[in-house]
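WARN retry 2 of 3 for item q-0093 after timeout on previous attempt; input resubmitted unchanged.
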Amino acid sequence: MKNSSLSIVILVAVAIAAYFVAGAVASLEPIYLSVAVIVGGAIVLLSSGSASSEESNSDSSASDSADTIDTQTLYVGNLPYRANESAIRKLFSDYGQVVSVRLLKDKQTGKRRGFGFVEMAAEDAPKAVEALNEQEFQQRTLKVREANERKEA
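OK item q-0093 returned
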């Protein structure tokens, strides 16, 4: 709703500007140009509004299915610095449904820190820990275990 209100304000501002520009040119009737801008903008707003509502419906159904899954977060340590999220997702997806992968980076340098977290279905997490802990991945021996809860700062 907030986004459509902003769009309407912008549309009205453009129509007012078009009115004054057309008045300065004098070969166009300013009111006709302003009406054309408003009608064209309304058509764009209506068409983008229906597209965004369809997107939000599909997004909400996807998030609903993710919310119903009981998840567990796993700590993954000793990762190779060249490993990326998709490689880790692929590795863990062999053992169950992966919800998210977060590989941490150094704030100063932007380089990977060599560890991360994998959120996956709780029923599949023990299988992944058992299968991947102490296993070699890209020439590094992984450390995989249940993640500790975040400490409040």
